[in-house]
Amino acid sequence: RKEVEQDPGPFNVPEGATVAFNCTYSNSASQSFFWYRQDCRKEPKLLMSVYSSGNEDGRFTAQLNRASQYISLLIRDSKLSDSATYLCVVNRQGDYKLSFGAGTTVTVRA
Amino acid sequence: ETGVTQTPRHLVMGMTNKKSLKCEQHLGHNAMYWYKQSAKKPLELMFVYSLEERVENNSVPSRFSPECPNSSHLFLHLHTLQPEDSALYLCASSQDQTGIYNEQFFGPGTRLTVL
What we know:
Distance between the termini of chain B: 32 Å
Structural class of chain A: mainly beta
Number of strands of chain B: 11
Oligomer: heterodimer
Mean pLDDT of chain B: 90
Largest sheet of chain A: 6 strands, mixed
Strand content of chain B: over 45%
């Protein structure tokens, strides 16, 4: 089983729509969770860390469900500039190794 | 310069060539990483350096040889590569290697093509 699994998509949504997707992780000892964004042929960039109580950053909301071992990302009022691949990233406390999912592709159309 | 920089941005090399990738971080971080990203695959961790000591060699073939002369610089020396080594090579850095929120900051990558 992969350490981090994501639905590859693509999720094609119109501008202004809400889009949400999940990521599951296999290691119950995981402590830290992140969403990174990667534009085509560019490097990954940190979008947001995911805290145990869930957190919101503008139009982006991340949730963590430890019991079911998944995290989610919700994007409200989608913009064309939100088109990207979203990488789910997990690691354990005290461990330098980040485990990356293969990414979920989101395409926002006008 | 700010953040993490990598040179060259693009590299085409033959299987018998020797080349080096360079990474420099301007963030005062203590840990640096090399990743390989192939099309449609997750990032693969190759090497980790913490305070200039290699702490991880993730079963990487010996044709890839890392070097970390100081905490700001990281090199990846390449020799006798194979066409399947063509990929995006990403360098990253983080404040340390063990923090609970160990955000890593990535350089723009070197897109490598092996002919």
